[in-house]
Write a structure and sequence with these properties.
This protein has 331 residues and is α/β, with parallel strands linked by helices. Strands 1, 2, 3, 4, 5, 6, 7 and 8 form an eight-stranded mixed sheet that branches. The longest helix is centred in the last third of the chain and has 26 residues.
């Protein structure tokens, strides 16, 4: 490993509770190792993870984001404001198009295509991101935002060279199918980056990173999986295991290039606080989720299996502002 390790951070989707999970995990890592995620060489965000990525690049410390009202996480659910209710599927042709190309759509993509277009305005997210640093028009370096193009189901990774501003990109990445209206970028509608993959960790495969830290609130730590009781619990567990299986395949690609990888996923204790995947917009869970995630990260980084990762992170030096400052580029 080179003298100054190159670090990548991958932050997956998960709604408001996912945002709280990321903040808690990163705060716990900082407390355990002294490493501040704001100094990562590359941050990849999907949906809730894109919001946290923007907050980090705007200069917000993870420990500051533990406080309610800090950063860009919404504090209310937007009202229905966009057009009349419709029950027409948003993009059924997308599924047909992928089948014709022998590229079967994942269940997430099928659901996104067959649900009606959402009616809530994702600008509530974009406006909050724009307010993080209103004096700067620039997109920060080392920040990628994952979205899904609705008409063909392709993943689109937006960055400083994509032509989209960060606020719009994050809004698109958060535009959950059936909840938020799709967000137009470059003439095409875009939706939640998690429709294809809730993690999108494989986008860093070719980035010459020494260590990749992944926070994935919607999967589950298979090694810590306990029994599920009741139909709803079994269904939620199956969904989390499916997300975890995809994440495992993505991380295998990253490891094949020689990078050290650590993935922080919830176990049974954390899932009990997070709730099912359908509870992702439950505002009342945020504080408990953040502190549970912090405690879990502290335990993980104090354990022998993560000693090498903790050592790498503890050895990184950086000069970072103590909190967000005006003029830090975020758009």
């Amino acid at each position: 490993m080179r003298e100054q390790a190159r670090i990548g951070v991958v932050l997956g989707g998960g709604g408001l509770v996912g945002h709280a999970w990321h903040v808690g995990v990163l705060a716990g890592i900082a407390e355990a190792t002294g490493w501040d995620a704001r100094g990562a060489d590359l941050i990849v965000g999907t949906s809730a993870g894109a919001v946290v990525a923007a907050e980090l690049r705007a200069g917000h410390r993870p420990c500051d984001l533990l406080c309610p009202g800090e950063g860009a996480a919404p504090t209310t659910v937007p009202r229905l404001v966009l057009g009349r209710r419709s029950f027409r599927p948003a993009a059924p042709a997308m599924v047909v198009r992928r089948l014709r190309r022998r590229r079967p759509a994942s269940l997430g993509l099928v659901a996104a295509a067959m649900m009606p277009r959402g009616r809530r305005d994702a600008a509530i997210v974009g406006d909050a991101v724009a307010r993080l640093a209103p004096t700067s028009p620039r997109w920060p370096p080392g920040l990628w935002v994952c979205t899904t193009r609705l008409h063909d189901g392709e993943r689109v990774v937006l960055d400083a060279d994509s032509g989209a501003d960060l606020a719009t990109a994050v809004a698109a990445s958060c535009a959950m199918a059936g909840f938020f209206a799709p967000v137009p970028i470059a003439g095409h509608d875009h939706i939640d980056g998690g429709a294809r993959s809730v993690s999108n960790a494989d986008v860093v495969v070719d980035e010459d990173l020494d260590l990749v830290v992944v926070s994935s609130p919607m999967s589950i730590d298979r090694a810590a999986t306990g029994p599920a009781r009741g139909f709803a619990s079994r269904l939620a567990r199956r969904q989390r295991l499916s997300h975890g299986a995809r994440l495992a395949r993505e991380l295998a690609q990253v490891r094949s290039r020689g990078a050290l990888v650590v993935s922080l996923e919830p176990g049974p204790e954390e899932v009990a606080v997070l709730g099912g995947c359908g509870a992702s917009m439950d505002f009342g869970r945020r504080d408990a989720v953040a502190h549970q995630a912090r405690d879990s990260a502290l335990r993980r980084f104090a354990s022998a299996p993560l000693a090498e990762v903790a050592s790498v992170l503890a050895g990184i030096t950086s000069t970072l502002p103590s909190r967000a400052e005006p003029g830090v580029p975020v758009r």
